[in-house]
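Inverse folding, one chain.
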């Protein structure tokens, strides 16, 4: 083994306090052990886990506690050790990790976290605090698992104006939709599998209701556009109500149903949201399967870029966490927000009602003469025109009518649905999704 190079601060050991020893925490310990020599070659520093915070010190673990490390449930004690250089926060939640991270920053320690919920909902003050104390607050693992999208935006593509970013940002939701599509699994079974594989959040509502993807979209919007789109204002629809019929109908038209997060600048305004979306099967995004994630972005110099890779799970996420740790070990200068200013201005938000898209509709109607004409009429009243339509199960009393529209605003689509209901044309609440 080659003699380790010295790092700028002259240390050859980077000491970590780990908060959380679940899926990602144990994954990190495993990679640090497996790649010990390689880490020294890459960073000139030995990376050592000294203490690990958990809720229950007696609980069996997926990977042994590293030799020399202690397991504790004492939040205060974790940071009192002056030897600790970096807090690695992998516990999840908002209040407890926020307190811990703020205390670590105030104590002059660097922070690496995978916690998108905290950073999206309450992160701005932590970035300000980190800047005041001149420490790293790194969070590559918080968005798209192993895919290096945050540093790509902060560093490699920093010279570009980004015009549009579209992504599959949640591994659990993508796993569920992929299993429902390819293996005809029901929603509950697919979710259970995603949980067993370590992809889902401790509260899987965040995954299936689109909130985790929305957290990630907030972080991406800050880095790509330099503005803050408050999480609470982002339009979000999850996958919990996606029905197998819609996956099948979409397939007949040549589309796949995906949970897509997207943000773009339109006439100086930011339009963003997370929605189940039909994506044509020829698009790369449509081919992202299982717990994989992908981001497609367009910059004014780089053109279109597509990044694809594992979006969740122990080792993929640990890979991103360790990359951040090594950057601290090398003595890199903190570039936490990707901008000179540490607090982004509020985005000039386009009203979600004005967002324009093509749409997929599935409506259940009574199979009587003139019903298609009347449906088309309800759409035409809102200036929406039909691009393709199919009617299924002719002869039954109630039949699904499925159609794709040309571009329409969300406002017009809602008004058309209200019109269909008011005229008594539909026997169930219509289903409609955007088309990418
Ligand atoms: P996890 O398996 O549920 O592990 C959480 C760990 O944190 C457990 O060891 C738990 O202790 C500990 N913990 C939780 N709350 C605590 C508290 N108040 N005090 C002390 N310890 C506490 O979660 P995970 O899947 O590893 O996720 C961790 C973080 O990474 C989350 O922010 C998540 O959003 C993020 N993330 C996860 C993935 C993924 O694929 N799983 C990917 C990217 C980012 P006990 O074990 O004693 O209960
Ligand atoms: N629960 C998240 C997902 C973990 O399924 O994508 C990765 O952030």
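Residues assigned per position:
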């Amino acid at each position: 083994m080659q003699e380790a190079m010295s790092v700028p601060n002259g240390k050859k050991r980077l000491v970590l306090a780990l908060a959380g020893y679940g899926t990602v925490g144990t994954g990190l310990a495993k990679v640090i052990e497996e790649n010990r020599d390689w880490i020294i070659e890459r960073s000139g520093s030995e990376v050592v886990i000294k203490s690990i915070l958990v809720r229950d010190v007696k609980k069996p673990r997926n990977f042994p506690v590293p030799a020399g490390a202690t397991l504790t449930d004492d939040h205060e004690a974790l940071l009192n050790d002056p030897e600790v250089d970096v807090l690695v926060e992998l516990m999840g939640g908002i209040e407890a990790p926020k307190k811990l991270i703020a205390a670590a920053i105030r104590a002059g320690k660097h922070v690496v976290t995978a916690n998108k919920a905290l950073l999206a909902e309450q992160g701005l003050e932590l970035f300000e605090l980190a800047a005041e104390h001149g420490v790293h607050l790194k969070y590559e693992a918080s968005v798209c698992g192993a895919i290096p999208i945050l540093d790509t935006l902060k560093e490699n593509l920093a010279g570009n104006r980004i015009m549009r970013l579209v992504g599959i940002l949640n591994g659990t939701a993508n796993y569920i939709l992929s299993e429902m599509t390819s293996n005809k699994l029901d929603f509950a079974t697919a979710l259970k599998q995603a949980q067993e594989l370590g992809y889902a959040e401790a509260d899987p509502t965040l995954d299936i209701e689109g909130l985790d993807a929305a957290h990630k979209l907030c972080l991406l919007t800050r880095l790509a556009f330099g503005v803050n789109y408050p999480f609470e204002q982002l339009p979000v629809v999850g996958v919990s109500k996606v029905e197998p019929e819609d996956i099948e109908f979409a397939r007949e038209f040549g589309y796949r149903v995906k949970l897509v997060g997207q943000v773009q600048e339109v006439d100086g305004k930011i339009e963003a949201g997370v929605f189940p979306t039909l994506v044509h099967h020829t698009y790369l995004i449509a081919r992202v399967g299982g717990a994989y994630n992908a981001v497609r972005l367009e910059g004014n110099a780089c053109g279109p870029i597509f990044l694809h890779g594992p979006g969740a799970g122990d080792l993929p996420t640990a890979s991103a966490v360790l990359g951040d740790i090594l950057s601290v070990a090398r003595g890199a200068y903190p570039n936490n927000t990707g901008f000179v200013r540490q607090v982004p201005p509020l985005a000039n938000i386009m009203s979600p009602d004005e967002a324009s898209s093509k749409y997929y509709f599935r409506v259940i109607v009574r199979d009587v003469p003139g019903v298609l004409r009347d449906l088309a009429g309800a759409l035409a009243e809102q200036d929406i025109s039909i691009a393709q339509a199919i009617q299924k199960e002719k002869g039954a009393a109630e039949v699904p009518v499925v159609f794709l529209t040309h571009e329409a605003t969300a406002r017009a689509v809602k008004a058309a649905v209200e019109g269909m209901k008011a005229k008594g044309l539909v026997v169930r609440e219509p289903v409609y999704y955007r088309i990418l």
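Confidence is low (pLDDT under 50) at residues 1-8. The radius of gyration is 24 Å.
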